[in-house]
Amino acid sequence: MAETDVARTVGWDMEELTRLVEGAQRGDALAMDELLGVVAPYVGRICGPVALQDGADAAQEALIAVFRNIHQLKTPAAFLGWVRAIAAREALKYAKQRQRQGSLPSDWDEKPVPEDLQLASDIADVMCRLAPEHRVVLTLRHIDGLNEQEVAGVLAVPVGTVRSRLFRARRSFRSAWE
Questions:
Q1: Structural contact between residues 59 and 40, judged by C-beta atoms closer than 8 angstroms
Q2: pLDDT of residue 32
Q3: Beta-sheet strands, E only, within the chain
Q4: Mean pLDDT over residues 64-78, rounded?
Q5: Which of 25, 55, 64, 112 has its CA 20 to 30 A from that of 127?
Q6: CB atoms within 10 A of CB 124
Q7: What sign results for the dihedral spanned by CA atoms 176, 173, 112, 34?
C-alpha cells in the first residue's frame, strides 16, 4: 500500500505529514510532538493484534524508536512505511517474549470490528491462539492492507517466507475458528 493510500485511509494530508517529519528532523519539538500524536493510533492498530495484551507497550516502544531515530529517515515521504516497519518489529518482539515466557495471551483491549462485538471477540480469541509470526503477517496483510511484497519489506524477510507464513496462518486461523 502506497504511503499516500495509507495517509488517505487514516485521513492524513501527506504534505502536512511530510512537513511535520522535516520539522521533527530539524529538532522542532512541537513538530515531533504533533507527529507522534498523529501516528500513535496507527502504531497501536499494528501492535495491538500482534502483541495482544502487550500491544500498548509495543506501541510505546515503537513510538520511542521513531522519536530516537527520526534523523535516520532519509526520505520524509517514506515516513509511514518506516513507522509501519518499526511497529511490526516491536510488536513481534513483544509477542515472542510473551511466547517464550509461556504466558497465555489475554483478550484484546480493543476489538477489531466494533459494529459486531461477538464476531470481534471470536476473531480476537482465534488470533490469540496463533503464533506471533502468523499474527503479524495476517495483521499487515488483512488489517493494514499490504500486499505480500510490502509485508516482506516491512518484516525484512523474503516474499516466499511471507507467502508460507500467510498460508500457515490462514490454515491455523481456519482450524482454530472451527
A1: yes
A2: 92
A3: none
A4: 91
A5: 64
A6: 21
A7: positive
Those residues whose C-beta lies under 8 Å from the C-beta of residue 88, and which sit 6 or more positions away, are 46, 50, 136, 139, 140, 154, 155
Task: Find, among 160, 177, 90, the residue nearest to 132 by Cα.
Answer: 90
Q: Which residue has the cell 476473531?
A: 123
Could you tell me the maximum CA-CA distance found in the chain, to the nearest angstrom? 53
* Torsion angle defined by CA atoms of residues 29, 30, 32 and 37, in that order, rounded to the nearest 10 degrees: 140
Greater pLDDT, 69 or 96: 69
Per-residue pLDDT tens over the stretch 17-61: 889 999 999 999 999 999 999 899 999 988 888 888 888 899 999
